[in-house]
Specification:
Layout (H helix, E strand, L loop, with lengths): L16 E6 L5 E6 L4 E5 L1
Antiparallel strand pairs: 1-2, 2-3
Length: 43
Amino acid sequence: MNPPPQILHLPGHVDEVFCVDWSPDGEKVASGGKDRLLKLWMN
């Protein structure tokens, strides 16, 4: 089975990303990963 296609590239993590969530208004994205970092992007 092939993985789904990449729909967005958000640089910043140096290891696997475990979770991603969007704000209700779609303006912010948060991600957390194996590198123990929480990243927040704003449109």
